[in-house]
Amino acid sequence: MEKNSWIVGLVILVVLVGLAIWGFSKNGQKNVSGVSTSQSETKIITGQENYFDVSAKVMYFYQPTCHYCLLESPILQKLAVDGYRVKPMDAAANPDFWAKLANGQDNPKSIYKIQGTPAFIGPDGNRLDGYQKEADLKAFLDKYRSKL
Predict the structure, then answer these.
(1) What kind of fold does domain 59-147 have according to CATH?
(2) Which of 17, 28, 44, 61 is the most buried (most CB within 10 A)?
């Protein structure tokens, strides 16, 4: 009889651990930085943002899971309400955008010499590298407003 209760206890323990794991994965895991990876809590840049326009003159180099790109997204969303658009340039999908190869050597295919994301490059080659506050980004985009 004692052997059967030990087995029942083990089965209950396995079921509880399984439910705990299932519940944890359903609620979204936290990565090392504390940012949730749940789709409902983390916006992943999908290419369907209202600020993207393939005909825009200002190129926006981003990576879908880049921390600073995710911080830039609400600013771009806000500026999009006023008609600002940027041309999406997914740096994660195109290794030829990067200035350096993995071995640290210059990439002869690199056209834009991207060192990091986010990065904005105007049609005249002027650029803003890194996360930008709304006022700074708006001022940069205003230079090309008639060209957007």
Answers:
(1) Glutaredoxin (3.40.30)
(2) 61
| Count of alpha carbons within 13 angstroms of residue 126, beta-carbon side | 11
CA 80, CA 59: separation in Å to the nearest integer? 15
CA distances from 137 to 14, 26, 62, 75 (A): 54, 37, 15, 9
CA–CA distance, 122 with 140 (Å, rounded to integer): 9
And the tokens for 88?
Answer: 């999406």
Domains of the chain: which residue ranges? Answer: 1-30, 59-147
Cis peptide before 118 (omega within 30 of 0): yes
| pLDDT digits 0-9 by tens, 38-66 | 343 445 666 567 899 999 999 999 999 99
In terms of C-beta density within 10 A (0-12 exposed, 13-18 middle, 19 or more buried), how is residue 122 classed? Answer: middle
- CA-CA distance, 78 to 126, in Å (whole number)? 23
What lies within 8 Å, CB to CB, of 44 at 6+ separation is: 64, 65, 70
Q: What is the pLDDT of residues 70-118, one digit of tens each?
A: 999 999 999 999 999 999 999 999 888 888 877 778 887 788 889 899 9
DSSP state of 43: P
